[in-house]
Amino acid sequence: MATITVMAVATLLQLLAVDANSMLVTSNDPNLYFSEQNWAKTQDGGMVSVNPGAYFKLNFTGSAPIAVSLANMSAPGDPGDHFMNIVYSINNAEFIELPVYSTNRSIPLSKSLKPTDINTLEFYIYNSKQNHRRWFSPVGPGGAGLAVDGIILDAGSQTFPYRLAPKRCLIYGDSITEGVNAQCHAATGCTPGGDLCNNAATKTWGRAVAAAMECEYSQVGFGSLGWTVPGGGQVVPVFTPGNPEQSSWNQIYNGTPRSFTNIDYVFILHATNDGLRGAKPEPVTASVTGWLQALRQAIGSQSHVFLTVPFGSFGAAQNPIGSLKAGYDAYISKSPTDKNSHYIDLGPTAAVGLSHWGASIQGCDGIHPRGGTMASARHGELGAMIAVKAVMSMLG
After folding, report:
1. Is 259 exposed, middle or buried (0-12, 13-18, 19+ CB in 10 A)?
2. pLDDT the model gives residue 190
């Protein structure tokens, strides 16, 4: 992954207005691409996401400045809550990291592009505070949602289609998938061990899998979440049998359905938090079976689904022992013609250094893989291993 550069807040987080000399490119422009399963579209064309790793891309020409316009996320008297960091790249330069405050109405990205060039933008939610509201009313004071109105360019600018990967991946998981503790060493000016310091959504196994599978991807990771246990920010469990309202797999946030169109591959890596928080195997097994049935109904018969054992072997060799394979086998016994649902277990090799708390070569804390830069890039290695197993499974 590229090196992250932290720029001065005072310089880059000044407010911008969309005036007569500017134009706003919204999600209604088909050339502005948003990762497809982790953004919710508002009535006025704005987009909201609560997921670190959610991103958008744009090609444009005719503008020297560029900024991201945000919806109002504050209340009167709000002193400004630093609840999120984003990273972006223009013209494939190294990522630049910027903080997001609840009082920001825009995020200036550049003032000096060449208007005659076709310029490219990639923009990612890098991390956010896990204890802020991610599920109920995520936009506003105390919320963890990013509300994007659009992209501010000079008036008269043109947009062009972004060259996208041919496939689409939906990637589910917990804090590992979110990128918690993916970077162990504190950056200058942040609190060691804090969400806005050590978490890095772009340094995760899911991004590596998506690259290997040639996917644009939707990264849906919620810290502390499990099949049967809730996550941080009041996120409800992955799958609650008989209760879709109390399930998070099918919603972007509370009451906002997730789209399941145009998906080639679904990867899910859950059970770590079920194991760490004492869940029994039977409820986890029931949730796995029910989720496989419900997902297959939502996405159709052609998409490939990969039920993946977490790297620390939770749900397999560790508690809740054997629950994932039991859930998968129960589903296959009821759906014997489904040849596109797969079970992946990387085994003891993947579990080394990631099966219990305590720093290791593989993980900053012994549970979450390292993302790279200072030590091993275990996230990327594990993502490559999953992709190989997925291709082998599809080939039979």
Report:
1. middle
2. 72
